[in-house]
Amino acid sequence: MDLPTPTGAPLSPEEIKARQWGMIIHLSIMAGYLVPFAGFVVPVLLWQLKKHEHALLDAHGKNVANWLLSLLVYAAVAWMMIFTLIGAVIGIPALCLLALLNVVFAIVGGIKANDGVVWAYPFTIRFFS
What we know:
This protein is mainly alpha-helical and 129 residues long.
C-alpha cells in the first residue's frame, strides 16, 4: 500500500522504509522499561546502523540521542535534589515526570516519524545538531 505524500503522490518504498525505521528508533527508547539500559543502547545503536541509509534517519537519531543525554542530565540533577531536605519534595516528582515524558515523547516522536516529520523533543539540550 502506497502512502500519499502531501502533494498526493505515492511514497517510494525507500521513503516508507525510512519512516518506519524512524518510528522504530523513537519507540525503541521504551525498551529500557523492559531491559535495563536498553532504552539508551538500542536507539543509539539503531541510529548508528541506519543513519547512512536515509537523511531522515540521521535526523531522528540525533533528536533521540539529544533527548537521552538531556534525560540523563535532568535525572542526575533530580537524584542529587533527593538528598537535600527540600529537594526530596521536588526530586521524586521530577523523576516521575521525566519517566512520563520519556514515554510520551517516544510515542509522539514515533507517530511524527511515521508521518515523515522530524520532531525535536521539547526541553532537549542540543548536543548533536
